[in-house]
Amino acid sequence: MKKSLFRIFTLALITCLIPLSKAFSQDDESIAAAPLLDEEVLPNYHYEYIPDFTYDDIDRRVKAMDHEMSFELNDRIFSFIQYFTVRNRDYTKMVLARKELFFPMFDEMMTKHDMPLEIKYLSIIESGLDPQIKSRVGAMGLWQFMPATGRMYGMNTNSEVDDRMDPELSTEAAAKYLKSLYRMFGDWEVAMAAYNCGPGNVRKAIRRSGGKKTFWGIYNYLPRETRSYVPQVQAMLYILNHLEEHNFFPEDPTYVVEYEKIRFDRALSLDKLAELTNLCVSDLKTLNPAIKNTRLPESNKSMALRIPRTKAPYIKENLAWLNDSLNNAPTILLASNVQVQSVEALVQEIKQNSTVYRVRSGDVLGSIAQRHGVTVTQIKSWNNLSSNLIRVGQTLRINSGMSGNIATTQTNASGQTTYIVQPGDSLWIISRKHEGLTVEQIKRLNNLNSNNIKPGQKLIIG
Questions:
Q1: Helix, strand, coil share of the chain (percent; to 5)
Q2: Chain centroid offset of residue 169 CA
Q3: Which of the chain's ends, N or C, has fewer CB atoms near its CB within 10 Å?
Q4: Under 8 Å between Cβ of 131 and 115
C-alpha cells in the first residue's frame, strides 16, 4: 500500500514539473490567425497544362487544313506531333519566338518561285530558325548548306563573311535548289527527302522500291535520318497551324527590324560604323548575321549592309563623310615631301585651341562629333567619359580642327599651299574646308594610295 501511494505521489510530482506551452483563448486564436487571413494565398503550380488529344482529333484537323503539298496523317507523323507538343515543347516555343523574323520573307520567296508556302517549315527542322547555327559536318545557316552546295548557288565563305548565314541569300538558294529537285522527282515530299540526303540516295531508294516515286512508297529504302525528316516537317506544319489547341501562345516573339540596304563599297568595322552613326552594334550584327566578327573585309566590300530604316536617311545624306571616316588603318607615308609635326608641338597647339561645347536638348555624342568633325571616341577620351550618356547643360571640351583656328594653312617659298592635319580630320573634311578641292586632288598632290591620314601630317592642297 505504501509503495502504491509513493508511486502515485512521485507521478504527480513529475507531472507538475513538466513545462506547459502558453494557452490561447478562442479570442487569442482569432488574433493570432488574423495576419494570415489578411494575406492572399495563391496556388503555386509547377506544371504546364498540356491538352489531351487523340489520333482521330489530329486526323480531323489535318483533313480540314488548306495546304498545297500532300499531307495524310499516319503513325509516324502522329508520333512527331506528340513529341513536339508534349515531350519537347521548349523547341516549339523557341520556334514560335523566332518565326516572325523569317516567315514573312520565306512566304515572299516561295511565292516568287511559285512554290508551296509549306516548304518554309523545312527550315525549322534544319536549323530551328537560327541563321548562324552550324552542324557537326559543317552545314551552316537557316537552310544548312554545305560549303560546296553553297558555292553552286553563289554563296561564298571566308574568314570574315559566310554568305550561307545571310537569310535572304540562303533562302533564295534553298528555293532554287528545292525547285530543281522537284523538277527532278515530280513530288515535293520526295524533293525534301533529296534535300536532306541527296538526289543520289533518293534515286537508289526508287530503284530498290521497284520504281515507286512517292515519299511513303520509298520510305523503307531511304537513310534512317531522312525517314524522320519529312514527317517532322509535316508535324511542324500541323502544329504551327493549331497552336491554341495545344496551349501554345507566343510569349515573347521577336519581330524583324525594318531595314534598308546600303552599299559602302569599302572594308569597314561594324563597331566603327555604330560609333559614327550612334547605332547599336548588336542591331547591326543581328541584321547582318553573315558577318562573323563585326569586320567586313576588302574582299566583300561590295556587300550591301542592312541598316535600321530609321537611320538610313542620315547615313545616305552623309555617306561621303562616313566612307572617309570609317578608315581606321594606320597611315602609310609614301611621298618624301610629307612631313609630320612633332607630337609635343601638336599637343600644345591642341590645348591652346580647344573649345568648350555646352550640350543642348536633343544632342547626342554622334551629332556633336559630326558637327565638329571629330569622332565619338575622341570626345569621350578628351572628357573622360565612360559611356555615351550626356546631359543637357553639360560642358564638353572639343579639340576640333573645325572649331577654331587650329587648322593651319601655309604657302611655302615654291608657291605650294600646305595644310596640317588636325584631330578628327579626314580627306573629305579637308576638301570641304577648301573650296574647289576634291579628295582625289589631295591624294594625287601627295602621292597617297589610300585615304589614311593622321594628326600632324602636312599635306599639299594647292
A1: 50, 10, 40
A2: 16
A3: N
A4: no
* Grid cell locating 417: 599651299
279 burial level (CB within 10 Å; 0-12, 13-18, 19+): buried
pLDDT in tens, the chain (462 residues): 444 555 555 545 444 444 444 433 333 333 333 344 445 555 555 578 999 999 999 999 999 998 888 888 999 999 999 999 999 999 999 999 999 999 999 999 999 999 999 999 999 999 999 999 999 999 999 999 999 999 999 999 999 999 999 999 999 999 999 999 999 999 999 999 999 999 999 999 999 999 999 999 999 999 999 999 999 999 999 999 999 999 998 877 788 888 999 999 889 999 889 888 888 888 899 999 999 988 999 999 999 999 999 889 888 888 877 877 776 433 333 433 434 444 445 445 445 556 778 888 778 887 787 677 677 777 877 787 777 788 888 888 787 544 433 446 777 666 778 888 776 677 777 777 777 788 788 888 888 777 777 777 788 887
List active site positions: 126
- The tally of CA atoms less than 13 A away on the side-chain side of residue 376 is 21
Give how far Cα 252 sits from Cα of 98, 182, 242, Å: 9, 36, 18
Report the C-alpha gap between 190 and 202 in whole angstroms: 8
Q: Got the DSSP string for 265-330?
A: -S-EEHHHHHHHHT--HHHHHHH-TTBSSSEE-GGGTTPEEEEETTTHHHHHHTHHHHHHHT--SP
One-letter amino acid of 198 = G
**Closest listed residue to residue 406, CA positions, set 441, 372, 371, 440:** 372
Judging by beta carbons within 10 Å of its beta carbon (0-12, 13-18, 19+), is residue 241 exposed, middle or buried? middle
Give the three-state DSSP class for 309. coil
With cell 599651299, the residue in question is 417
Please say whether the beta carbons of 205 and 213 come within 8 A.
Answer: no
Q: Which amino acid is at 336?
A: S
Residue 261's DSSP bridge partners are 306
Instruction: Give the distance from CA 97 to its chain's centroid.
Output: 14
- Give the residue carrying C-alpha cell 543581328: 286
Q: Give the Cβ contact number of residue 361 at 10 Å.
A: 6
Give the separation between CA 129 and CA 334, rounded to whole angstroms.
50
For 419, the 3-state DSSP assignment is: strand
- Could you tell me the three cell numbers for 99? 518565326
Q: Give one word for 198, left, alpha or beta, with left for phi > 0 and alpha for psi -120 to 50.
A: left
What the block records as the C-alpha cell of 34 is 488574423
Q: CA geometry: angle at 206 spanning 204 and 209, to 5°?
A: 110
